[in-house]
Specification:
Elements (H helix, E strand, L loop, with lengths): L1 E2 L11 H14 L9 H20 L8 E4 L2 H11 L6 E5 L4 H13 L3 E5 L10 H9 L6 E7 L11 H11 L2 E5 L18 E5 L11 E5 L37 H17 L1 H20 L4 E4 L7 E6 L4 H10 L2 E2 L1 E3 L4 H7 L6 E5 L6 H15 L5
Parallel strand pairs: 1-11, 3-4, 3-5, 5-6, 6-7
Antiparallel strand pairs: 2-8, 7-8, 9-10, 10-13, 12-13
Length: 384
């Protein structure tokens, strides 16, 4: 099987991830922060180790500012809804995932908030950070509270200029929320340099951890509000959630197996090197672009941006049909709209979505050749 659906979830996981999860389940999976015995202490220590690993990887202020979540969607909901108040205005890019768009729509409908879309200029041949920041600046109002941007859309490899957007937010005294779902593990994200107020992360994609793991990393000045309420393992006599992080935002028992698996994934990632991974994925992208562009009837979207994701369509064949045909040949890709109609509007693939192939450190040039051969066969009409 050739797996090219890493933008949805990375596979296979590094062996050390599987091994650490198994060791946790058999040797030390007590309830962290909820007991005075060695299993609870061991689990709590391993969870803190993962906080430190994430803090170091993304240049966060402190391990206590790392809040564990189920996934990036959970993290984004905490960050966005923490800022919700009557009249609050948000600015987000025109290629945001539904994990940003839907919370904003909810807040606009139910909480008296509003939002505007800035131009990512993905289809602009002369795209640069100045044009993107000018679009953001033109939308700022007195009631604007935050700018929200993906690090990179999930249907192409066009990175957003996080450093420049962060600098604009600093000058404008706005908070800066970043969806790191398609950036983390593929290229460097530095919270300090980019002035990021809140960074949402999935553990199961580029960080090579298991599903059910994720994190929200916040700056000390970010005004956090709990999304869920309950036991925190501390201050049990208080009726309200604690004020201190991370307990304020971590109601209920944490998933120790998922978190220790995430730490093992980060170690595996670091042993390879993010720069090396990004270069490897760019080479695979360029090879895929060259081969697919040679096939009659194939359109590649946003081909100028090399990275971990390439989207394309075959004229006359729905994208989900193409994905199904590739699956019959043991090639895993994704067809459809990828939970991101905004980005499809930008790329011009809004009518039928696209076929998305996405790479990991473990994909090879042979995988790309196999994909191109299969697409060539489909485009010739053998399986129509």
């Amino acid at each position: 099987m050739i797996y090219l659906d890493n933008a949805a979830t990375s596979f296979p996981k590094p062996p050390e991830v599987v091994a650490e999860i198994a060791r946790c389940m058999t040797e030390y999976c007590g309830n962290p922060g909820r007991g005075s015995h060695k299993l609870a202490f061991a689990a709590a220590e391993k969870i803190f180790d993962c906080r430190v690993a994430l803090c170091n990887l993304f240049s966060a202020e402190a391990p206590e500012n790392v809040i564990f979540t189920q996934n990036a969607t959970h993290a984004l909901n905490i960050a966005i809804q923490s800022l919700a108040r009557e009249g609050a205005h948000f600015i987000c890019s025109d290629c945001e995932h539904n994990s940003v768009r839907r919370p904003l729509e909810y807040l606009a409908r139910e909480r008296g908030c509003s939002y505007s879309l800035f131009d990512s200029h993905i289809n602009d041949y002369y795209r640069n950070s100045q044009k993107i920041c000018s679009s953001i600046a033109s939308l700022i109002r007195p009631e604007t509270v935050a700018v929200i941007s993906t690090a990179c859309p999930n249907i192409c490899s066009a990175r957003m200029p996080l450093d420049e957007i962060g600098a604009l937010c600093r000058r404008s005294k706005l908070l800066f929320i970043v969806d790191g779902a398609q950036g983390a593990g593929h290229f460097e994200i530095n919270m300090k340099l980019s002035n990021i107020s809140a960074l949402a992360l999935p553990g199961h994609k580029g960080l090579l951890g298991p599903q059910g793991s994720g994190a929200l990393i916040v700056s000390s000045s970010f005004p956090t509000m709990p999304l869920t309420f309950g036991g925190s393992g501390t201050a049990s006599l208080d009726a309200e959630m604690p004020l201190e992080l991370p307990e304020r935002l971590e109601a209920g028992t944490l998933s120790t197996p998922a978190i220790v698996g995430l730490e093992a994934g980060i170690k595996a990632l670091s042993s390879i090197g993010i720069t090396k991974i990004g270069a490897h994925e760019a080479i695979l992208f360029q090879k895929a672009h060259r081969l697919l562009s040679e096939i009659r009837g194939v359109t590649v979207y946003a081909p100028r941006y090399s990275g971990s994701v390439i989207s394309f369509n075959i004229e006359g064949i729905p994208s989900d049909r193409v994905a199904n045909l590739l699956s019959e040949r043991d090639i895993c890709v994704r067809g459809g709209f990828h939970c991101n109609p905004l980005a499809h509007n930008v790329l011009g693939s809004h009518l039928h979505g696209s076929v998305r192939a996405s790479f990991s450190p473990f994909n090879t040039a042979d995988d790309v050749y196999a994909l191109a051969d299969a697409i060539r066969t489909v485009a010739r009409g053998k399986y129509r």
